[in-house]
C-alpha cells in the first residue's frame, strides 16, 4: 500500500490532525478546519443577506425576494433601476470596506500581538481624517479631492509611524505607542482644522469623520476594489504563513526561516493601504477593524490570525451596522460610523468581562 | 525641597504668568500690565484684568491639576506613559459634560462639572480594568486608553451630528481652550482642584511604598487597596474639574512629571510639589504660544498641547528603554 501519490490518486484522503483536516488531490493539498470553514461561510452568508436587506430598505422599500429578483434580472424595470444603479453600489462599498478593514485589523493584531492593536487606534485613520479635512477646509472639498486626501493622509501616516518606530527593527509595542502618540497629536490637528472651517463645512467634515455610506457610488468602490485585488492575495498567500510564525515571537519566527523585518514591512504596508483606501471610500468607520478579527477568532476557535474569516466577519459587521443605521430611526437615518462606534463600546465591555473571568482584575 | 531648584521653578512660573498677562493679540509692556491689573481707568484694564487675568488663573489651576494627576497616575499604575488625556479620562469627562449640555440642557459649569466627575471616575476604573489591572504593561494600558478614547470620541461625534448647536459649541470647547475663562469659572473650579491636590499630597508617602510592589508595601504598613481607591478619587477630582473648565487636554500630565522626575528622582513627596509649580508654567507657555502662532487669531491651547506634547512623547519613547512590552 505504498503506492506514490500521483495524479491517479483521485479519491481525496482526509487526515485528521488536531481538529484540522487535510484534503489531498494529487500533488496539491489543502489543510483546513471544518469549523473555521463553516464559520467563514456563515459570516459570508450573513454579509450577503444584510447587503440584500440594505438594498431593500429606504424610502422605496422592497422585500427580500423583490431585491433578489431585481438583482438577477427578473424584476420590474423600476425595481431593477433602483437596485442596480442606486443601491447596489452602496452595498458593494459596504462589503468591500468591511472586508478590507477586517483583513487590515487581523494583520495588525497579529503583527503587534495585541487584541487591541487595530489600525484605527494606531493613527492611520486619524491621518486619513487629516488629509480629508485639509481637502474639505482648504481645497474646496470635491468628493474626489476628499477621497484622495484621505488615502494620501492615511498612507503618509503609515510611513511616518513606521519610520518613527524604527530602531534596529520595528517591535510591536513601539509601533503601538508611536501610533497612539501620533493619533493624539493628529486629533489635535484635526480639531484645529475643524475650527478653521465654516459651519457648513464643519458639519460635513464631522459627518465624514464619523464614517458614512450615504451617496456612495461605483467611483468610490473602484479604487478600493483594485487595491484589494492586488493586496489581498499578496497578504493571504505571500505573508499569511509567515504571519502565523511571527505570532510566536520574532526569535522563533526568524529561527524558522522568516525574514522578520521584511515580512513585517510588507504586512504593515498592505494593511495600511487597505485601511487608507477604505477610509477614502467610506470615511474612518470606527471599530470594525478592531472587532471583526476578534469575533472571527472566537467563531472559528482556530489559532492564528484567521485572515479570511476576519474579512467575511468584517463585511458582515459593516453591512449589518448599515442596515441598523438605516432602520434605527425611520425618518432619520444615522451614519454607519455611529453604529459601529457603539459596537466598539460593547466590545470593550465584553473584553472587560473576559478579563474578569480570567482573574486578571 | 532644595532652595536652588525651588527658586528656579518659582522664577519660571512667574515668567510664564507675566508672559501670559502681557502677550496676545495686543502686546503690553510690564508697566501697562501693572496698570491694567490695578487701575480700573487704565487703557489695558479690560484686556488684562477682565480677560487675561482669569485666563491665566484658570491656566494655573488646570495645569496644576493635570500635572499632579499625571504624576499620581504614573505612580499608581507603575507605568511611565500614564496620562489623563492618553488614557481617556479627560475624554470621559468631556463626553459626560457634552451629554449634560445636549440631553439635560445643563449649560452652567456648576451643573455639568458633576457629570464630568462621573465620566472621569467611570473611565478611570474602566481603563485600569480593560488595561489588565495590576498585570498591565505600558503598551496594553495605552491601547486600552486609546480604545476608550476612540469609543468616547465617536460618541461625542454622534451627539454633535444630532445637535448642530452642540457641534458649534463643542468644536471649540472640545479641543481644550482657556479663551472662554472668566472669574466665575475660576472660583468654582478652585475648591475641587484644591481638594484633589490635598488628597494627592497625602497619598505621596503610601504611593511611594506601592512603587515597591504590593507585598513590600503591605510589609511597610501601607494599605494598597485604600491607596489605589484614594488615588482614583484624587485623579477624578483633578481631571474632572480641569476638563469641565477648559475641555480635554492631552499630554500635559504625561510630559511634565517626566521632566520633573529627571531632576528630583522618583520620590513623590518631591515630584508632586514640583509638578504643581512647573506644569502650570508649561501650560501657560503653551497657551501663549497658541496666541502668538496665529495672531490676531489664536490656536487653542489643547491643540498646542497635543502637537508639541505629541512630538515630546515620541522623543520620550525613543529615550525610555524601560517601556519594553
Automatic annotation (TrEMBL), chain A:
CDD domains to which the protein is assigned, alphabetical: TM_ABC_iron-siderophores_like (cd06550)
Entry's localization field: Cell membrane
Pfam families: FecCD
Keyword set includes Transport: yes
Transmembrane segments: 36-56, 91-112, 132-163, 175-194, 221-243, 263-287, 334-354
Membrane-protein topology: Multi-pass membrane protein
Domain of life of the source: Bacteria
Keywords on record: Cell membrane, Membrane, Transmembrane, Transmembrane helix, Transport
Main location: membrane
Family matches, as SUPFAM superfamilies: ABC transporter involved in vitamin B12 uptake, BtuC
Keyword Metal-binding included in the entry's annotation: no
Family recorded in the similarity comment: Belongs to the binding-protein-dependent transport system permease family. FecCD subfamily.
PANTHER family: FERRIC ENTEROBACTIN TRANSPORT SYSTEM PERMEASE PROTEIN, FERRIC ENTEROBACTIN TRANSPORT SYSTEM PERMEASE PROTEIN FEPG
Protein name per UniProt: Iron chelate uptake ABC transporter family permease subunit
From TrEMBL, chain B:
Keyword ATP-binding: no
Superkingdom of this protein's organism: Bacteria
Coiled-coil region list: none
Compartmental location: Cell membrane
TM ranges: 56-73, 85-103, 109-129, 141-162, 189-208, 229-251, 301-320
Pfam families xrefs: FecCD
Keywords tagged on the record: Cell membrane, Membrane, Transmembrane, Transmembrane helix, Transport
Topology class, membrane: Multi-pass membrane protein
InterPro entries: ABC_BtuC-like (IPR037294), ABC_transptr_permease_BtuC (IPR000522)
UniProt similarity note: Belongs to the binding-protein-dependent transport system permease family. FecCD subfamily.
Protein name: Iron chelate uptake ABC transporter family permease subunit
Species of the source: Yinghuangia aomiensis
